[in-house]
Write a structure and sequence with these properties.
alpha+beta; 2 domains; four-stranded mixed β-sheet; three-stranded antiparallel β-sheet; elongated
């Protein structure tokens, strides 16, 4: 019973180090983890990452927290943030994150998690920590940065018209909600992104839309 209480207190998202510190038992940690997996007290997500059993959870599992734990460093970004904010009509097919490491995809019992590489110059800004009432939290891009991250990964562009086509036809970005984004933040982030797509064409597009 003490172990279940500790799992409930630590969970619902757990990495291997958190699980290893539970129970105060001596012996092989992997044996302990294996025993709890077999008993159904924890559920494996990917190697070294777990969630507690539903009956032990004090709140729902946060997929965003799991995204940070599964592969890091990373922050939630791209289509997942854009869809949740209503900026694009389609729901994201996976929980998408940015990382300075190589691309990775994970299929898990809780759904797919996708990680896309950004160079350090594009990765190092534009995200914040979001928190749940219990103090647990994760790193996530501001909507403005999530859009720029997606645009960077979609490839460079040579004109404002090509940029408009990419945003409003390919991505199906809502134009009214795009205008409602924080223009100062968007322009400031764009100035830090590598390439003329951001420093030239996006600057012109923003000037046109807000004229």
């Amino acid at each position: 019973m003490a172990v279940k209480r500790q799992l409930a207190e630590q969970g619902p998202e757990l990495d291997f180090l958190a699980v290893a510190g539970i129970g105060g038992e001596k012996g092989n940690v992997r044996d302990k983890v294996s025993r709890w997996l077999k008993a159904g007290d924890i559920i494996g997500v990917v190697k070294g990452i777990y969630v507690t059993a539903p009956e032990l959870r004090k709140r729902p599992v946060s997929l965003e927290i799991l995204a940070n734990l599964i592969y890091g460093p990373s922050y939630v970004s791209f289509e997942y943030v854009l869809a949740r904010e209503g900026l694009i009509p389609e729901a994201a097919t996976s929980l998408t994150s940015a990382t300075p490491k190589r691309n990775r995809d994970f299929d898990t019992p809780l759904g797919p998690f996708s990680y896309r590489h950004l160079p350090a110059a594009a990765y190092s800004f534009g995200w914040t920590r979001r928190e749940l009432p219990d103090g647990s939290g994760w790193l996530e891009a501001h909507p403005e940065k999530a859009l720029l991250d997606w645009l960077y990964r979609s490839g460079s562009l040579r004109s404002v018209s090509a940029l408009e086509e990419r945003l409003f036809e390919d991505l199906r970005l809502d134009q009214e909600l795009f205008r409602d984004l924080d223009r100062e933040r968007l322009a400031g982030y764009a100035a830090l992104m590598p390439g003329a797509t951001f420093r030239v064409h996006l600057a012109k597009l923003l000037g046109r839309l807000h004229a």
